[in-house]
TrEMBL record:
GO terms assigned for molecular function: transmembrane receptor protein tyrosine kinase activity
Listed PANTHER family: MALECTIN-LIKE DOMAIN-CONTAINING PROTEIN (PTHR34590:SF18), OS03G0124300 PROTEIN-RELATED (PTHR34590)
Domain (Malectin): residue spans on this chain: 30-84
Coiled-coil region list: none
Protein name, per record: Malectin domain-containing protein
Native source organism of the sequence: Quercus lobata
Length: 92
């Protein structure tokens, strides 16, 4: 239900593209597991799609290349886990 796809009609990939999700969290000191699921269903070749992952404005993964994480297989699903401490992201 939360799948997002880049605009395939846009041939200028140098334009910035941003996808954002917001999730409510409780107050106080806590840690949350954030699991991000990816599957590159857009690229026509390997090593063409690089992006950064931010959690509450903090850089969590720089220059993520899904083809490296999936052993160079296109359209292969993968997930990346992050443990987010409320104090770390500034919610506390």
């Amino acid at each position: 239900m939360t799948t997002q796809e880049m605009n395939r009609e846009n041939t200028n990939l140098d334009l910035g593209f941003n996808i954002t999700w917001n999730f409510p969290v409780g107050s106080g000191c806590a840690q949350y597991l954030v699991r991000l699921h990816f599957c590159d269903i857009v690229s026509r070749a390997l090593n063409l799609l690089y992006f950064n992952v931010y959690l509450n404005g903090y850089l969590a993964y720089e220059d993520l290349d899904l083809s490296v994480l999936t052993s160079h297989v296109l359209a292969s699903p993968i997930y990346v886990d992050f443990v987010v401490d409320l104090r770390w992201v500034g919610w506390d």
